[in-house]
Amino acid sequence: MRLRKFRVRAYRCIHDSGEITVGDLAAFVGRNESGKTTILQALTLLNKDEQVSELDLCDEMSEELKEEIRLAEGEFVLSQHEISLLKEKFPGLPEMKKIRLYRTNRNPQVQYEFEEIELSEDENKGLNSWENFSKQILGFLDTIPNHLRIQIDTKFFDGPVPRNQETFDSGMAEFSNQFHVIAIQEPRVIEEWEKIYESPESQFSNLLSGESEKSALQNFIASELHPRFVYFSDYKKIYGNINLNEYLREERGDSIEFIEEFDKAETVRNLFYLAELDMNELDEVKESPSKCIKLLNAASNRLTSKLNPAWKGDPIHVDLRYNPGNIMSVVISDVHRDGTITNTGLLNRRAEGFKWTFSFIVNFAAETQRAELKEAILLLDEPARNLHPTQQMGISDLLKNLAGSNQVLYATHSPFMIFDYTPGNLLVVELDKRKHLSRIFYDYWNADDKTLTPILYGLSRGQVESIVDREIGTNSRPVIIVETMSDAMYLNAFDKFLQDPNISMNPLNVVAAYNKNSVLPLAIFYRNHGYRTFVLLDNTEESKQISAQLVSNDFSAVQTIFFERDGKKLESIEDYIVMEDYLHPVNQTYEIKLRHEGFSNLTPQDVSSKEGKGVLDKLRKIWQEHSEDWGEFDNEEITRYICEKIALEETSFLSDKTKDQFRSLYRLIAERIRQYQNVATKPDLDKFQKAKP
Questions:
Q1: What are the beta bridge partners of residue 568?
Q2: Distance between CA atoms of 79 and 99, rounded to whole angstroms?
Q3: Is 129:209 a contact under the CB 8 Å cutoff?
Q4: Which terminus of the chain has fewer Cβ atoms in its 10 Å neighbourhood, N or C?
């Protein structure tokens, strides 16, 4: 049974989630305190034995909670096996493909709805149920002689439905033996009892529970098909040495005082479960070194084979070793591609991140492989926290494998844990801070940009892969890396504005670095993977240092381009814009602040009177003089203004001189590219590229 839609109301910070569609492997993405954990925990209310706490009810909805409210409800689709099973048990009902479960604030039990199927709630004596079967037995007893009747104990039939086949068989056998002893002198009575006892309809597997068609169906689903939600949040750590005396004492339920080498019995139980190691069998062979080594080697190999599929990087080998004092050691080795084994040592000597990853995979893999978790709906809260991205991708592989036999819903902040961007398999959770309400976006692209950050990074993984693909690099247009987003916006916008095919930027890929510190490594990455790479820099001291570092990393002088015009260095790309032209958007953007300070407009004279190396430096000096009221000068805001006006073709404020000065920049870039292509040879392009793995 798989969850396809759900809705949560009046639970903690969630007033109403609305109806949300989910797939078999769904990720919930949202900022801290947005309600992701609340969503997962609310779904556990649909478990049969879950109890609703008054503390979990939404305080802001006290008026609504005076009435009965569905706190959690879900629409489930049935598998073909489940559909066939219901058809076999209830042949008179139409085929049932989905059901709805819900829990309210008033009823302690999970309730069921069967859409488009009419079910009778009237008592049905023809229903092959435990209740009718009990009435049949008691009715039969009313027909036998009274002196026999008063001796027979009927408590088995007066009680609740037997828990399982074994309880039913033992109860029926005990009653039948009692009946034979009491009625031994009445062969005809015994003959009638045997007909009932041996009837196929009297078999427990055929008996339903309930006196009406509806109650029987509900009880059957509750006992046989009710979905199970399993919530994971506490990923316990496994250490290198396990004191088996302490472990066995904990298994027996005795309290123990934890020590550094021993966490909880549950984590050790999971380790031994994956290794298929029986403590009783170990106890029998531990005095025989050869038998003990053989047993532990087999267990170690089983454990290793189950862990490595989710382990990224070089494989590991796990050894379980028995030591004096009834201590079990967990020893880890790195297995390299050439077969060599290194770094053998106790698990607790490894880095914290390694121990956490190892422990998570052991705990999670064991608990999800147990038979009782098959076909469960697994709810995971941050399953890959603290992990390196390569290990996060290993966990994601584990989740994808689980999604075959289980439905998996999980909360994450990591772009490396998002691998399905289908609506329903990716859901965004946002918090309305004013109302303190969580909202879930099925159409996640409409969420807040900051909430979408990990999703956008995940969506951009293809761009990252394109950088490191040699075939893409060597067959691509040249790349020009710029220091800021403003530089990229200006290059693209003025290219459109000038509409000059002789100096167009179209033959280039313009790549904006995150900041100046990222220019050097980004340029090296592109160059090393086959791209003809150029770097456009301003004339600050920091940029000059970047240029020197590029040269020391085998970039030629023609690949580094500084802003200049007529042989004169320019401090920034904004200096290609005539002063009067640039001050127009400045005055428009900051009009209110300027008037408040007594300025009608900033003039070229106001700017020229300040000391500074360029227009941006001088404007920042003006802003610093009014720092309390004006804040900081934001040149990117001015960039957006200019580029927006170019897009709208509202460019009357831009002069022909500004156009000519930008043409000079494009000519400079084009000339450098031609120079590089004339001197670069294929060996130059190949020498930085790593061999394909």
A1: 565
A2: 12
A3: yes
A4: C
